[in-house]
Amino acid sequence: MSRHKCCSAALAVAATIFCLANQSWAQSSTENTAANVPPYATVSIKPDKSGLHWQTVTVGPGELTVKNETVPMMIQHAYQLEPDQIHGGPDWLNTDRYDVQAKVDKSALEILKNLGREHADLEQRQMMQALLADRFKLVIHRDTKAVLVYDLVLAENGPKMQQSLPGDAEAQGRVIQVSKGHISGREVPIATLASLLSEQLGRSVIDKTGLANHYDVALQWPVSVEGQQETENSSAAESYREMILAAVADQLGLKLEPHEVPMEILVIDHVERPTQN
To answer: How many whole angstroms separate alpha carbon 172 and alpha carbon 188?
Structure first.
């Protein structure tokens, strides 16, 4: 399974927040590792010095590769969370970026290969949770908090996006590109668009448009505000979100309506910088 920041949400439709209470998250670092999860035999963790604006997580049978990710980003992958479901921790969590390379031994690899896909994915997420607990000394617990989310609804005059023609996906394939200040794509389901917007906003977006078709999407917004998602309540973050909301309304004919809902969150009780290899 490979996840790239520019297209990750396009590959799978995120579950709505109302399903989160049914997820089996670990309550502390001691619960992160299931007894049958094979540990990584070799782990290399180094500060990322690439200066790139994209991140990559690749999870394959018995192997984990992380490029240019913060610890909260890795927690998102390990626990299948949205950004606004992770709370607490020191300031360096949102600035320090790491490259991680981890592999299991041959016997553990054979175990993973013999598992079904769903079971293997779960095992590998638990392995990543165990890595975070071991190398970053991560200790967490669950809680419930009223958080701000967005409903994606139709604007007054309806959508401005062009509906994809029947057969486009088969003839040309689905293509989605996401970069700073830009989302574009062909054959994009609205639920996928909601997931992409969630990543950009740092808050959950729920599709309530009622649109069942796929669309060609072209969305751009200014990127002059720096550090937009580093501080949850900063004025820079709010200004950045307002630019995205305005662009969605003007260019796509959709609206993002904020409201608060109770959501299960993950709270970081303790975390440390890893020792270098």
So the answer is: 13
Give the angle subtended at the CA of 39 by the CAs of 33 and 44, to the nearest 5°.
115
Between CA 66 and CA 21, with CA 129 as vertex, the angle to 5 degrees is 115
CA distance 148 to 262: 9
Length of the chain: 277
Q: Around 34, how many Cα atoms within 13 Å sit in the side-chain half-sphere? A: 14
pTM as predicted: 0.59
Residue 93 forms beta bridges with which residues? Answer: none
Q: Return the CA Rg of the chain.
A: 19
Q: Residue 224's pLDDT is what? A: 63
Closest-CA residue to 98 (of 65, 120, 147): 65
Q: Which helix (H) or strand (E) segment is 146 a member of?
A: strand 139-154
pLDDT tier at 238, thresholds 50, 70, 90: confident
Smallest CA-to-CA distance from 127 within 234, 20, 10, 39 is with: 39
Instruction: State the DSSP code for 108.
Output: H
Decide if pLDDT at 177 tops 80: yes
pLDDT at 4 over 60: no
Three-state DSSP class for residue 268: strand
Sheet holding 86-87, edge to edge: 86-87, 254-270, 139-154, 205-207
What residues have CB less than 8 Å from 162, skipping those under 6 apart? 215, 216
For range 95-122, the mean pLDDT: 85
Amino acid letter, residue 235: S
